[in-house]
Amino acid sequence: MSKVALVTGITGQDGSYLSEFLLQKGYDVWGIVRRSSSINTERIDHLYHQNALNLRYGDLSDTSCLLAIINEIKEKYFKDLSNVNNRFEIYNLGAMSHVKVSFEIPEYTADVDAVGTLRLLNTIRSTGLSDIARFYQASTSEMYGKVVEVPQNENTPFYPRSPYGVAKLYSHWITKNYREAYDMYACSGILFNHESPRRGPTFVTRKVTIALGNILKGKQDKLVLGNLDAKRDWGHAKDYVEGMWLMLQNPNGPDDFVLSTNEFHTVREFVEKAFALKGFDIQWKGSGLSEVGYDTKTGRELIFVSEKYFRPAEVEELLGDSTKARTILGWTPKCSFDELVSEMVESDCL
Ligand code: NAP
Ligand code: GDD
Questions:
Q1: pTM over 0.90
Q2: Ligand 2 pocket by Cβ (under 6 Å)
Q3: What CA–CA distances, in Å, run from 89 to 29, 86, 99, 185?
Q4: Closest residue to atom 4 of ligand 2, CA basis
């Protein structure tokens, strides 16, 4: 049996860990790379030598390329559609994934994060591959937004708070709709925040650990943040990509699952923990935009707050309940919050 996977967003944090995971399991991995004027493949450069990795330029805003890539895969592996052993896994991780930026480019976000999913699902159908395809949609805890219950599970109503969250909600529902309407193996993982040393530098955790590294090297004198009191359920991306794969192996059929650590921490706590690992003792003075984090040992003021990093509508707290994934899929996150902070700090403070 050919084990074949197509990954959109392969150059992103999750795409890179997922590709490593699938290649180790013997999959032929196909990845869609977005054309960029500068190098955007750093996270997968170490996988280039593997013959089982196939990269194609493409974009979720362009149906013609999705069609060409999926047809190429069909020609190579799935000419005989009657072969019951055929299995084609598609992981739709590609997205404009920054919540704050989605307020600035809302139409683009909708085109890629919402309609892009529809384009991909329709391409699977139009190439005649829906019976052998197993489709994973990267849904998000951002869909819970202004949360209506704590913690959030698969039955919690959604209340998105950003163009990103709204676009992802469309994709969540269209995935469910195609499962019900066309009997496709299509499921969504509702993933809470997951980080790693490969996290994009403008997400808060990585912004903190990069700044810490720069402060230690004397390249940066302060870190400016937004809402210090936002709470997030932060796990490690490596654990979460395994959960994505497990969803597509579920013997009970396609379903939606929350992946989360089931504990949350504030941005403030992340900062304190990260800086403590490098000998700082951060305490806070002032309030609101005048709040400052300083090192009690030296009195040095290191953390500042700016309006610039607040969102027009904030998601104040997210806390997951991943009991369903733990029970049905046997999934558990292995990396603790302390281990996550430590791994990111060590990686950025070399
Ligand atoms: P990421 O690092 O921002 O990666 C996003 C990927 O999507 C990148 O490969 C990016 O390409 C690609 N992409 C962007 N626009 C595209 C387009 N128009 N067409 C095709 N590909 C495009 O995000 P991540 O953290 O790995 O997250 C993976 C997915 O899970 C995303 O859909 C995200 O929204 C979702 N999610 C993430 C989290 C989390 O906490 N990390 C939680 C829940 C859900 P470039 O490299 O060229 O930018
Ligand atoms: N990015 C950023 N930069 N966030 C900050 C900052 C800052 O300087 N200061 C405070 N924050 C707060 C944000 O307001 C938010 O409440 C929290 O830190 C986390 O922000 P991000 O790290 O940008 O992540 P996110 O929760 O908005 O979105 C991420 O997680 C989602 C899952 O819940 C992204 O990965 C999304 O793609 C993903 O769906």
A1: yes
A2: 97, 99-100, 140-142, 192-193, 202-204, 207, 225-227, 230, 232, 267, 309, 311, 314-315, 318
A3: 10, 10, 27, 10
A4: 204
